[in-house]
Design goal:
3-stranded antiparallel beta sheet, BlaI/MecI/CopY family transcriptional regulator, mainly alpha, BlaI_family, WH_DNA-bd_sf, DNA-binding, WH-like_DNA-bd_sf, elongated, 6 helices
């Protein structure tokens, strides 16, 4: 599947949240972004071409549903980020956020719990 752009990911997020939706419903969901209706319809068409969504006829309109699952997209994006910025390693990523003071006490507690869970497998 072709790479999904940031704008296309915003449209996907709407469809991951609820589907199937008509183009008018996607436009309404994205009203706060200031995008024109033709822009959103172009993004839907691009996603169709890429195979990220499907369209089924419902009378005179089409209903759109995601084919690409959010979990698969997140895994692909996070793997690409790790490879690009941190040589495919998670520890330098966590260290980066730690050094910048961007890990909250809750983040640290959750990371510790995850690591402890790994140690007991």
């Amino acid at each position: 599947m072709s790479q999904i752009s940031e704008a296309e990911a915003v449209v996907m997020d709407v469809l991951w949240g609820e589907h199937p939706l008509g183009a008018d419903e996607v436009v309404a969901a994205l009203a706060g972004r200031g995008w024109a209706e033709p822009t959103i319809k172009t993004l839907l068409n691009r996603l169709l071409t890429k195979g990220a969504i499907s369209a089924s006829r419902d009378g005179r309109r089409y209903l759109y549903s995601p084919v690409l699952q959010r979990q698969a997209w997140v895994a692909e994006q996070s793997s690409g980020l790790l490879d690009k910025l941190f040589d495919g390693r998670v520890a330098p990523l966590v260290a980066h956020f730690s050094q910048r003071g961007e890990l909250s006490a809750q983040d640290i507690a959750e990371l510790k719990a995850l690591i402890e869970g790994l140690d007991h497998d």
